[in-house]
């Protein structure tokens, strides 16, 4: 493939969790980037996210973009089946993970997701959320206002995942097509990032910082300067 991009990824455990259940995969060689967030509060979330990125790390890019997408989907579906079997063997309800991934093509970018890990696109300083959280009530909102201490009462069931890998036998990956133009940048992140930052705040950093490495570092830094309540994972992809 002709490289038309640069990318970087960052992972931190945060200030509350004892271990990291997030995982990332950067495959510049085939144009594939992945963030997985093991389901907190469940057994072996780190196992689930690690298994997912390991399997996607083995997917070969042969044929056209649609063959590649089919191979990715097959790998994710197999991980879903394996996690269901592992949970049954261990006698636990769920061993699961969310997923957000980005695939490069010469003519477009494809973003796929399951759960509440997010994909963003930034072009000419304007940031857009291109995924939609698979949670009860739509877009996930944290009960604490960003950067402050005041709280609001969430609606009953708000923020509960409605889809995850390892949760149900039937798995559906949502896909969205985005542009592929020089100057466009993409962010994949676990919900540890948007627990600490609003979309507006993320956009400010995109406008301020251009280099993927500097931007990814800054997003993690802000999360750690605040409460750092969850594991945080971020991948930034820059198109040229």
TrEMBL record:
Pfam families: PP2C_2 (PF13672). GO terms for molecular function: protein serine/threonine phosphatase activity. Residues 4-239 form the PPM-type phosphatase domain. InterPro entries: PP2C, PPM-type-like_dom_sf, PPM-type_phosphatase-like_dom. This is Serine/threonine-protein phosphatase. PANTHER family: PROTEIN PHOSPHATASE 1L, PROTEIN PHOSPHATASE 2C. It comes from the Bacteria. It comes from Acidithiobacillus ferrivorans.
């Amino acid at each position: 493939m002709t490289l038309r991009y640069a990318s970087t990824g960052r992972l931190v455990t945060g200030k509350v969790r004892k271990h990291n259940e997030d995982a990332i995969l950067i495959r510049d060689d085939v144009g594939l980037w992945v963030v997985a967030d093991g389901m907190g509060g469940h057994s072996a979330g780190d196992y689930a996210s690690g298994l997912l990125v390991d399997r996607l790390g083995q997917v070969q890019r042969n044929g056209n973009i649609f063959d590649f997408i089919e191979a990715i989907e097959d790998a994710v579906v197999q991980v879903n089946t394996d996690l269901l079997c592992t949970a049954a063997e261990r006698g636990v309800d769920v061993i699961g993970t969310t997923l957000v991934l980005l695939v490069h093509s010469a003519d477009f970018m494809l973003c796929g997701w399951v759960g509440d890990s997010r994909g963003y696109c930034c072009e000419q300083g304007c940031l857009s959320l291109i995924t939609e959280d698979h949670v009860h009530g739509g877009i996930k909102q944290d009960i604490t206002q960003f950067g402050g201490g005041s709280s609001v009462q969430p609606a009953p069931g708000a923020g509960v995942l409605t889809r995850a890998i390892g949760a149900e036998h039937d798995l559906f990956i949502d896909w969205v097509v985005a542009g592929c133009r020089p100057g466009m940048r993409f962010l994949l992140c676990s919900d540890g990032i948007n627990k600490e930052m609003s979309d507006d705040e993320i956009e400010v950093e995109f406008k301020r910082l251009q280099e993927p490495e500097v931007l990814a570092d800054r997003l993690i830094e802000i999360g750690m300067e605040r409460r750092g309540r969850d594991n945080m994972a971020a991948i930034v992809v820059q198109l040229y």
